[in-house]
Amino acid sequence: xxxxxxxxxxxxxxxxxxxxxxxxxxxxxxxxxxxxxxxxxxxxxxxxxxxxxxxxxxxxxxxxxxxxxxxxxxxxxxxxxxxxxxxxxxxxxxxxx
Length: 97
What we know:
This protein is mostly helical. It is globular.
């Protein structure tokens, strides 16, 4: 599944409910899922890690949708290499901010 298809799938499944919840509460759910991912990474097994990565990705897609951001467009920032030095792998050592 492509990133844009995934974002559309989340919109179809949860878009109305997430829109009613609003951006702030959706962001709160996203951060809660990040906490669950942290626990899975450091205390869980592979199955729980896979599940939590999927949940974080789903909430991220919902946040992007509510903000009017296309995740495929966002990902293009990294399509040709590091956005700072342009190399792959990155040689500048700058953080990804």
